Amino acid sequence: MQISKGVEWAVHCCTVIALVGEGRGLNAEALSEFFEVPGPYLAKQLQALSRAGLLESMRGKHGGYRLARSVDAISLLDIVLAVEGPGPAFRCTEIRQNGPCGVPRKECRRPCEVAAAFADAEAAWRDALRRRSLASIMQEASAGSTPGHLLEIVEWVRQKTDPVA
């Protein structure tokens, strides 16, 4: 399974947006600058997060995006589903029914064993992502960073969202 870079970008953006003060937003252009990623593609990910109710969009001079829920209430699965959609990662096409030794459709009473194995694995994967909150990712990132770097990030966000700027 391969997760799109849009999911990676969305998770990282949410961690930065989480630092935005009350009544303020961080725009897509600033986030694009912060991560040095293409703005139009990043904007699509942010719009997907907004449609899913994970981000709120604010209009106006100091508008942009802010979290619609607390960091404890946003799971990694929420972000994956917002960006990738709810469909299964594995889609069985029933090729066991093809070819010279294919199993006749009427004899396929049970789910394909291959599909069942992938469904079990995906259920475990989704459950693991459901248990990981944005807060836990931010805590781990903070623990792995220096205080100076964390202050640099907070100051950058403050400058980009300060009403006086």
UniProtKB/TrEMBL annotation:
Pfam families: Rrf2. Signal peptide: none annotated. This is Rrf2 family transcriptional regulator. It comes from Parerythrobacter lacustris.
